[in-house]
Fold this sequence. Notes:
Layout: E1 2-3, H1 5-11, H2 50-69, E2 78-90, E3 99-110, E4 116-125, E5 131-136, H3 146-154, E6 158-162, H4 164-167, H5 189-204, E7 210-220, H6 222-233, E8 239-243, H7 263-266, H8 294-299, E9 306-311, H9 319-335, E10 342-347, H10 355-370
Parallel strand pairs: 5-6, 5-7, 7-8, 8-9, 9-10
Antiparallel strand pairs: 1-2, 2-3, 3-4, 4-6
Helix pairs in contact: 3-10, 5-6
Bound molecules: beta-D-galactopyranuronic acid.
Amino acid sequence: MMISLWSVLMSSMIMSATGTTPALKPEDLPVCADLPDPFRMNDGSYVKTPEDWRKRREEIIAILLDNEYGHMPPPAEFHVLKSRDRDVFKDKDKPKDRFNAVLRKVVLGFGEKNRVKVNAALFIPRGKGPFPVILSISPVTEKKLEDTAQLVTERGYILAGYQHHDFDQDNDDRSDGMHPLYPEYDWATLAVWAWGASRMVDYLITLTEVDKTHIAITGHSRCGKTALLAAALDERIALAAPHASGCGGSGCFRIMGKGSETLALITERKRFHYWFAPKLAEFKGKEDRLPFDQHFLKALIAPRPLLSQDALDDHWANPMGTQYTSQAVQPVYDFLGVPDNNSNYWRYGTHPMTYGDWEALIEYADHTFFNKPLVRDFKGRPFPGYSIPASWHVPK
Ligand code: GTR
């Protein structure tokens, strides 16, 4: 099967922004010690109407791609090279040979002669669809996720995922995956993985089993950063639920709790500089000159629901700075008329994404997609409050 470029272009809402903000050095930019005003347009005027916000949204995309993630190519054609189904999750209470789900393993081919092959998988509940989807930035077929896949399908969702390393290996070598297909693009690894998530959405919406209006995205840690970026750019994604996304994700660059990963640390040459556009590292020690902070990334998701999932003892991922970006994006959600769509799930404990985190994510998806009542608290503010700077022009 071939996914035609035209249908992808027609259906995709992805914003393809190219470098549009001036190539200023950090030292040429004004100091802004507190978080920048998301409502202030580049020309100094202020957002007053939802139409203005659509324009501001484009500016924010350009600011983030120019300075943080790099620019992505437009959607690409791909071929479904392989698609195999097998029954999984035997039902112990039912007559023999009764299974509760299907595992579909898929290979997608990109580029000339399908030179980039991406492995993907879906756990599809048995029964009458179409089903809502949780798309995870991970291969999803690992043994350790088996209980999760069972939980997700039992709750009536498809669990879909892909091997993000097939799009780009997690290293600074640009000779593997998608990079050689688009040498003219400066996209860094998180951007390649996020672009890959949008290609998965292209694929998912061709399936009759998929409820196209209810696709949620999640990912853990570096894949949480990816999930947030993918949802920010691709408006077909109906719920963003990054887990422990921290620095370069939900965490703030300017305001950090003790022991949190800084811009300088994450962009070190021996660490993860290749996740980001080279420009970001120039802001090391000059975070107060960043023309954005991570509440801008969250603002791109509004008015769609956003659930940032984080652990209180995961200091490296800057839980306090995550709460602050959540508070800083609240005026955008308020302005767009959906104050409740900006949510957090906090739990005690450390970094890994737990079974309980998946349960919380499904509960939240059930609530936002199907209006089911909430049991857990998704509005907690465990850290002392952040006050929106008085200089902001929050539209009334
Ligand atoms: C850490 C990195 C974090 C986070 C994490 C992960 O080493 O500093 O930003 O992304 O890796 O992805 O597990």
